[in-house]
User: Which sequence fits this backbone?
């Protein structure tokens, strides 16, 4: 019995699992990368992502550049397609850089958030050029602090995708044990909780996205599109070394642009490492 898919469905599939924002296998944030010959039906991609059951699965389609540097890129959690994902973009770039001789060392991705790029730095890290996501202060939605297990917050803000909760100390961030069922009722992609850093990091954070089918994301690149500008302004820094303190943990270097553009048009440069973990066939 058919599934009613309207477009090409691959008859064989290779899924590569890459751990992003880490140099150590089985830490950081795992993402699945699937390279397709041509566009596939979104329902099929969603079904694959549900089967893989990682926080994100990235689907890549070549866009015809002679040097293999231009790709269509879409991201799916086990339950929904998302507009922006940092760690699965890093994983995609790591995979392509390992398999293709990219002439100028830069990859370009056509995504639901516009064109994104990735380049390999001299130290081996991969830097992603992403849109910044500035925040505005808001009142804490009813039930938010209780769901996070917090008595109080220094500030609550909201960006395009997420709520941003600032607390006073990194130990609070590290010890959070939220009620994910209650967080799921909030009408946002996710909730980022952060504080001034410890252990040599400028910022320590955690990210919860039960509404997108991910109770806690191990390391969230897109959240740092908000955290970078937010904490850069708070700390007076343009370069931040950030740690996401999930059980797997991971490091994100963030550099905010200062080109005079309005906040909603500024870019954020995210740098991370990655390592291949598994191939599924």
Assistant:
């Amino acid at each position: 019995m058919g599934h009613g898919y309207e477009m090409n469905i691959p008859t064989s599939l290779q899924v590569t699992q890459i751990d992003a924002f880490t140099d150590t296998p089985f830490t950081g944030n795992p993402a699945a990368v699937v390279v397709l010959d041509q566009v596939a039906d979104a329902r099929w991609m969603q079904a694959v992502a549900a089967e893989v059951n990682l926080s994100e699965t990235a689907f890549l389609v070549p866009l015809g550049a002679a040097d293999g540097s231009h790709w269509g890129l879409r991201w799916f959690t086990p339950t929904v397609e998302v507009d922006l994902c940092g760690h699965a973009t890093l994983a995609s770039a790591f995979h392509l850089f390992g398999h293709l001789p990219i002439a100028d060392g830069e990859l370009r991705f056509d995504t639901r958030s516009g064109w994104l790029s990735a380049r390999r730095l001299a130290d081996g890290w991969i830097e992603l050029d992403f849109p910044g996501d500035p925040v505005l202060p808001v009142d804490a939605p009813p039930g938010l602090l209780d769901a996070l297990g917090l008595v109080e917050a220094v500030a609550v803000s909201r960006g395009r995708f997420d709520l941003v909760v600032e607390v006073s100390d990194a130990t609070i961030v590290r010890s959070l044990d939220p009620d994910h069922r209650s967080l799921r009722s909030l009408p946002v992609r996710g909730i980022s909780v952060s504080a001034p850093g410890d252990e040599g990091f400028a910022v320590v954070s955690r990210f919860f996205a039960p509404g997108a089918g991910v109770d806690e994301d191990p390391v969230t690149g897109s959240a740092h599109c908000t955290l970078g500008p937010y904490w850069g302004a708070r700390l007076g820094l343009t370069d931040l070394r950030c740690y996401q303190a999930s059980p797997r943990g991971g490091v994100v270097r963030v550099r905010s642009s200062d080109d005079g553009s309005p906040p909603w048009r500024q870019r954020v440069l995210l740098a991370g490492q990655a390592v291949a973990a598994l191939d599924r066939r």
Observations:
- Residues 15-130+275-280 form a domain with the Diaminopimelate Epimerase; Chain A, domain 1 fold (CATH 3.10.310.10).
- The chain is about 20% helix and 35% strand.
